[in-house]
Amino acid sequence: MNPITAIIVDDEQEARDILAGIITDNVPEVTVISKASSADEAIGKIISENPDLVFLDIDMPHKDGFAVAGGIASHNLSTTIIFVTAFNQYAIDAIRCAAFDYLLKPVIISDLKSCISRYIATRKTESLQQSVARLLGCLNNEKIAFNSRTGTVYLDLQEILYCEAEGNYTEIAVTRGEKHILTTNLGSIEARLSDRGFARISRSVLINKRYLHKIDRREKKCILLANGQSYTLDIKGSYTKKLM
What we know:
This protein has helices at residues 13-26, 39-49, 65-72, 89-97, 109-121, 128-140, 186-193, 239-243; strands at residues 4-9, 30-36, 53-57, 80-85, 101-104, 143-148, 151-156, 160-166, 169-174, 179-182, 198-200, 205-208, 212-216, 221-226, 229-234. By secondary structure, the chain is α/β, with parallel strands linked by helices. The longest helix is centred in the N-terminal third of the chain and has 14 residues, at 13-26. It is elongated, with a radius of gyration of 20 Å.
């Protein structure tokens, strides 16, 4: 059997090197031919090198692993994606829904071997484009119920732009221009959304990183961009580093 070629995508060099070492030492059928540290670099390398496997980290700054999957879906590739993630139930539910394989960080050797064995035994006949379309559908269809002053409001995660504390309440702004006042404090909202692509920019504001367009360190501002409309919000001290 010809060697199985693989690309590792992770924004942390240590994580890339550790996974490459584990693969080299324990799965001789797989040869790591390249590594990438960002979504854009990964898309370019995957398209040009067309590896058999991509070990794809999900939580990366600016563009996540799902953006990489979407970026390569329209190309005629024989690549199979194996998502690699710290425990993130939202991401894992979507991956399972779309029938992708995944590994949890830190990667355990026995899990990696089982994953490769499944790949060898059941090489997918479904196109990458079909698989990614199903994955994005699973991601985009989820709505979460929040308690508001007038009852319950159901919001699509992808439409939430930012959340701002209003005392013991939270105001949520969505991409359609609407705002909802929730009878829940920001800490509780963050607990539900922090592993789903949301991050604090101050003690009182939580943003959807999907819409993060620019960070102005001099003015201590961050700019969100959605549907051609920009939103400027104050960003505080140490929170800047958490967005990079």
